[in-house]
Amino acid sequence: MDAATTTTDAWQGGLELPAKTYRITRAHLVRYAGASGDFNPIHWSDRFATGVGLPGVIAHGMFTMALVGRAVTEWAGAPDAVLDYNVRFTRPVVVPDDDEGVEIEVTAKVREVTEDGLTRLDLTATCGGEKVLAQARAVLRTPR
């Protein structure tokens, strides 16, 4: 179900929205570091990342959050339809040093559609079958 082709009546509590999948490679991390100014070596150096106890190079938490936010705006139909968005980071997204990278899958379930036209979503983001975010939620204007 695509937000652009749904009606308000179709958005009901319990509805599961179609999964969105995003690939992250080391090239994405380099571009994100340049855009954000976050050049922490845990995001580009395996030697440094493992030296501080991480399993390898990890994606920026805010990059992961942005990808999940991208899914929310796609479901909402427009960025300005998203009124609130919150997550807690639970597990790092380890990005291998290869051309394939890693995938994040984002799913959502409609928790509630209010009488005043708001939809509350419970979000799940997984990487390799493991949840990478907790208490991920969004509130948006119910798509028409």
Automatic annotation (TrEMBL):
Q: Which residues form the signal peptide?
A: none
Q: Which residues are in the MaoC-like domain? A: 20-109
Q: What is this protein called?
A: Acyl dehydratase
* Family per record: Belongs to the enoyl-CoA hydratase/isomerase family.
GO CC, one annotated term:
fatty acid synthase complex
Q: Which GO terms describe its molecular function?
A: fatty acid synthase activity
Q: Which domain of life is it from?
A: Bacteria
* Alphabetical GO biological process terms: fatty acid biosynthetic process
Task: Kindly give the InterPro entries that the UniProt entry links to this protein.
Answer: Fatty_acid_synthase, HotDog_dom_sf, MaoC-like_dom
Name one matching Pfam family: MaoC_dehydratas
